[in-house]
Write a structure and sequence with these properties.
Blueprint (H helix, E strand, L loop, with lengths): L1 H24 L8 H9 L10 H24 L7 H9 L12 H12 L7 E5 L4 E7 L3 H5 L2 E3 L12 E5 L25 E5 L5 E13 L13 E8 L14 E9 L1
Parallel strand pairs: 2-3, 4-7
Antiparallel strand pairs: 1-2, 1-5, 3-4, 5-6, 6-8, 7-8
Length: 262
């Protein structure tokens, strides 16, 4: 009996040890509920979540759009400013204006009649009593013409041709000792209604009254084109818009006094 008791006690002890080993080995599998959730959260990666593919794609498109906009803006900006000499050349010489439209029979007849009575020499005299100007107008706007007085822009009209915009350019400062010396300096002093006279080589005088004052970029040639009525346009340069009395050096703006024939 005593021997049997010792055997039973040994079996019982082995059972208790087996249960303890099983619990120690599989203890984590016994976790349930909130503890399970904590374990799952503990193994999740930390840090910011990745941006959804659509959001990333949209951000890339916005960045591309902004870059394209910047490139377009950069294209609009001039590569470099004109030098003083280039600005002066642009202000003092022009390309011929666009070809006029095909004339109607009536206007063609009037032009033919005017051409028949036109003087052989296109040199004219310009008189502007309000500012004390009396100066010759030579053909062309080369420096030779401008330094000798004023120049008639080739390709524009003449007083003896109906519907003409007779375009005359002159220096603002010019050259001392020549007819160009401050020839158009006082042009900004002219007011609406002031009289302008052009006299052709035959001695015929055409009378005009100032009707418009224009300030345009030095590259704007539209002011040289016909306007649908008989006018003379007197052009010089000013330093900037609204700046009439600064003596250069840039002459950034074309100043045009337009007068209608009366």
């Amino acid at each position: 009996m005593r021997w049997f008791g010792w055997i039973g006690a040994g079996v019982l002890l082995l059972g208790i040890l087996a249960v303890g080993v099983t619990y120690a080995a599989g203890g984590t599998s016994l976790l349930t509920g909130s503890d399970t959730d904590q374990t799952e959260r503990a193994v999740e990666p930390t840090g910011a979540e990745k941006e959804p593919p659509k959001a990333a794609e949209q951000a890339e498109k916005e960045a591309t759009k902004q870059e394209d906009t910047k490139e377009e803006t950069d294209k609009d900006e001039p590569d470099e400013e004109l030098s003083d000499e280039e600005q002066a050349q642009a202000a003092e010489s022009f390309s011929a204006p666009k070809e006029p439209k095909e004339p109607t029979p009536a206007s063609a007849s009037a032009s033919a009649s005017a051409a028949a009575s036109a003087p052989a020499d296109t040199t004219m005299t310009l008189d502007i009593p309000a500012i004390g100007v009396s100066v010759p107008v030579y053909e062309g706007t080369t420096e030779a013409s401008l330094s000798a007085g004023t120049g008639h822009l080739a390709g524009t009209g003449y007083p003896w041709i109906p519907g003409s915009n007779t375009y005359v350019a002159g220096h603002r400062v010019g050259y001392p000792g020549t007819a160009s010396d401050y020839v158009f300096w006082d042009l900004p002093s002219l007011a609406i209604g002031d009289e302008v006279y052009l006299t052709d080589a035959n001695g015929k005088t055409y009378t005009y009254a100032v009707s418009e004052i224009l300030e345009v970029p030095i590259t704007d040639l539209s002011v040289t084109e016909p306007v649908g009525r008989d006018v003379v346009s007197l052009q010089t340069c000013i330093e900037d818009y609204g700046d009439y009395w600064t003596e250069g050096p840039n002459w950034n703006v074309r100043y045009v006094v337009r007068a209608d024939k009366v």
